[in-house]
UniProtKB/TrEMBL annotation:
<dbReference type="Pfam" id="PF00561">
    <property type="entry name" value="Abhydrolase_1"/>
</dbReference>
<feature type="domain" description="AB hydrolase-1">
    <location>
        <begin position="33"/>
        <end position="144"/>
    </location>
</feature>
<protein>
    <submittedName>
        <fullName>Alpha/beta hydrolase</fullName>
    </submittedName>
</protein>
<dbReference type="InterPro" id="IPR050471">
    <property type="entry name" value="AB_hydrolase"/>
</dbReference>
<dbReference type="GO" id="GO:0016787">
    <property type="term" value="F:hydrolase activity"/>
</dbReference>
<dbReference type="InterPro" id="IPR029058">
    <property type="entry name" value="AB_hydrolase_fold"/>
</dbReference>
<keyword id="KW-0378">Hydrolase</keyword>
<dbReference type="InterPro" id="IPR000073">
    <property type="entry name" value="AB_hydrolase_1"/>
</dbReference>
């Protein structure tokens, strides 16, 4: 039996909002595309459990990308990006994801994102319901204030240690210790982008009063949130889903803010349930 993973990596060139990016992504599987966004300040390694899940990749082409400035995706190629502060906006974030799906020529993709990726999932359902077969908002809500803080990059702090340690108590104590330490390790490598990501998460993302405009028939929305998430609590996600036409909420016991990396085996059962809900909703509306 080969020890070589079936997961493969590629680069794709994308132009969006006048910026040119070389974007790295991992993929595995065949079938309907399932496009996966990592959490703020992290990278696509968070989705390795899903990428190597034979049951899911038998039905879905799982694609997990590194957002520009994260992992193996560099900042933009055609501007002097180092002369401006990085602050991710809802407009650019949504435009980038649509451009990525277009560049990869994906038909009827399902989008899944966690944390600030869960929030952009809601933005996509509102802005481009025609482009996605459904969205899975993991640890997402209509509004997530209070986390855009200067001390994520304070000169008196070790930013890598601060960012990594800041995620520790967002994980469930029941999650395997090795997986919690891996999640901590992932965050020790992404401190430069963390604060800019959180500009979107806590400042520019605000769908209060707009959730009723999301057409859950055209683009089904399923929200999944872990019991131990105190940034976006299960109550926050449940409240959000209740305001979306045909929105669905799944609470995940004994999981925290990083379900796909801190405890994939527990998360996968909820993920399969969510995918079945999307497929059922689309077949009913067809």
């Amino acid at each position: 039996m080969s020890n070589i993973s079936p997961v493969t990596g590629h680069y794709v060139t994308i132009e969006v909002d006048g910026l040119k990016y070389k974007v790295f992504y991992l993929e595995n599987g065949t079938g309907q595309p399932l496009v996966c966004q990592h959490t703020a300040g992290c990278h696509n390694h968070q989705w390795r459990g899903l990428l190597e899940d034979e049951e899911i990749t038998a039905k879905y082409r799982v694609i997990a990308y590194d957002l520009p400035r994260h992992g193996k995706s560099d900042p933009p190629e055609n501007v002097e990006w180092w002369k401006e502060e990085y602050r991710l906006t809802a407009d650019h974030y949504a435009n980038f994801i649509v451009a990525l799906c277009d560049a990869l020529e994906l038909e009827d993709p399902i989008f899944m994102g966690s944390s600030f990726g869960g929030n952009i999932a809601l933005q996509l359902a509102l802005r481009r319901p025609d482009r996605f077969a459904g969205v899975l908002s993991v640890e997402g809500a209509d509004y997530s204030p209070g986390f855009y803080l200067d001390w994520w990059q304070h000169p008196h702090a070790n930013a890598a240690q601060v960012c990594a340690s800041g995620v520790w108590d967002l994980m469930a104590p029941q999650s395997p210790e090795a997986d919690r330490w891996k999640t901590w390790f992932y965050y020790s490598q992404g401190s430069e982008s963390f604060k800019g990501d959180l500009y979107f998460y806590s400042v520019d993302h605000d769908l209060r009063g707009k959730l009723g405009e999301i057409d859950g028939d055209q683009c089904p929305v399923v929200m999944l949130t872990g019991e131990y998430d105190y940034l976006t609590t299960p109550a926050d996600s449940a409240r959000t889903a209740a305001q979306i036409k045909n929105g669905t909420f799944i609470e995940m016991p004994e999981i925290g803010h990083f379900p796909m990396s801190e405890n994939y085996e527990r998360f996968r059962g909820h993920l399969i349930e969510a995918l079945n809900i999307v497929q059922g909703a689309k077949s009913t509306s067809a």
